[in-house]
Amino acid sequence: MHTTMSGRQKAGQVIAHIVMILIAIYTLFPIVFLVFNSFKSNSEIVDSPVSLPTQWSFQYIISAAQQINFFKAIGITFMITFLSVLLLVVVSSLAAWVMVRSKSVLSRVMYLGFTAAMLVPFQAVMYPLLNIFENIGLKNIPGLIIMYGGFGLSMSVFLYHGFIKSVPQSLEEAAIIDGANIFQMFFQVVMPLLRSTTVTVIVTNAMWIWNDYLLPFLVIGNREGAKTLTLELYFAKLTSGQYGNPWELIFPAVFVTIIPIIILYIFLQRYIVSGVADGAVKQ
Questions:
Q1: In this predicted model, what pLDDT tens digit does every residue of 37-94 receive, in sequence order?
Q2: Half-sphere exposure of 84 (CA within 13 A, CB side)
Q3: 265 HSE (CA, 13 A, CB side)
Q4: How far apart are CA 180 and CA 191, in angstroms?
Q5: Taking the CA atoms of the chain, what radius of gyration do you get in angstroms?
Q6: Which among 153, 276, 263 has a CA at the least distance from the CA of 207?
Q7: Sequence-ordered list of residues with C-beta below 8 angstroms from that of 278, at least 6 positions apart, any chain
Q8: Residue ranges of domains in the chain
Q9: Architecture of domain 71-281
Q10: Among candidates 86, 146, 92, 143, which has minimal Cα distance to 114?
């Protein structure tokens, strides 16, 4: 009987491993497909899109980087992403902390409002929001940063709110007794304890903002010297002067565009699962 159960367990493990391998292959295939075609000419991509390149040349990547003004666009994209994420981290952590510690009816209503806002699609408020920002002169990069801060706030507050509940209030009281003001107490005592949740908030929002196309297109458009990487890629494709899709531009341009955010994710991925679990399970 024991041998039969052991055999079933091993068979189950083998099947589970096979399923996970197939899922991994399915997940990684688009990235492998992108990398292979980033080193091919347009004709080679059309003729054999899933084969290895006949020659591994960086010519197409260098050419694509030049056409999308890579270094200037990456600077603009990094600035927008960095300032938006910084705004999100500071505002959402403080807001969640105040709502957890106040324990009032108003704080509960506000928290429900933040969580309910996650269900509102961007398209539902897109045109009124753009109209308001245009009327007040914020249809530009600073306005785009403020918009990102607003749209990412609800999920970030949700994650912080759950984890802050597990932070002992006695630590905060001890810091106040030692002479710390409220901001010193929060940023020097509470914030270091929120590291895993903070990393999760940073990575998830940075990936979204870095890769976003719709909001920069609506706010910045084809404004010279202010385009993000996704906008540069879109307008470079439009002005490539070729019939159909210029694949030898699209594949390497997308490849160089996603490299920075992939590197960020690889280095911080171990914090993401724990941060989400800490923020969601402890609600």
A1: 888 888 888 888 888 888 888 888 888 888 888 889 999 999 999 999 999 999 999 9
A2: 29
A3: 11
A4: 14
A5: 24
A6: 263
A7: 162, 163, 166, 196, 197
A8: 2-37, 71-281
A9: Orthogonal Bundle (1.10)
A10: 92
